[in-house]
Amino acid sequence: MFFSKDKKSHLDEELYERCYYRVFTAVNLIARDPDLAEDAVQEGFYKAFCNISQLREQTKFCAWVMSIAINDSDDAQVRKIEINGNEGHLIKTKDGTLILRWAMRGLGIALIGKIEKEELIKVARSVA
User: Fold this and answer.
1) H/E/C letters for each residue in 37-104?
2) What is the model's pTM?
3) What is the pLDDT of residues 39-53, one digit of tens each?
C-alpha cells in the first residue's frame, strides 16, 4: 500500500502518539532515568519508522517499537559524570558512539561523537 508523503507523515504521527506513553513507561522502568529513556524511545521510533517494511504484523507496532527501545537502552553503557558543577550522563552505545548529556543554565545539551571519552569531556568543559 502506498501513501502520499502528507498521508504517511500523518500516519507516522498517529502511531507515535498512540504508542509513545506505553513505550516510554516501559523503557523508563528499566533505565530509571527519564532523559535516558527519552533517548532510547526516540531512537526506537526512528529505527522503527526507517524499517517499517520489516514489521510482520501491523497490529504489533507498539510492541515492536517497545522492544527496539528496550534493546537500545540495554545496549548503552551509562555513567553519571560532572561537567563544571552540572550533573550529566556519559553514554556509550553498542557501536562505540559516545553521547554526553547534561543541563546548563536550564538548557539540555548533548554532544555526540566517535571520539575518546577524555576528548568529549574536554569539549564539554570548554562549552560549559
Assistant:
1) HHHHHHHHHHHHHHCHHHCCCHHHHHHHHHHHHHHHHHHCEEEEEEECCEEEEEEECCCCCEEEEEEE
2) 0.57
3) 888 888 888 888 888
Q: Three-class SS of residue 105? A: coil
Does the structure show a pLDDT above 60 at 128? no
Domain span at residue 22 reads 5-74
What CA–CA distance (Å, rounded) separates 40 from 82? 22
Residues 92 and 118 in one domain: yes
Nearest to 101 by CA among 31, 49, 47: 31
Residue entry with cell 557501536: 95
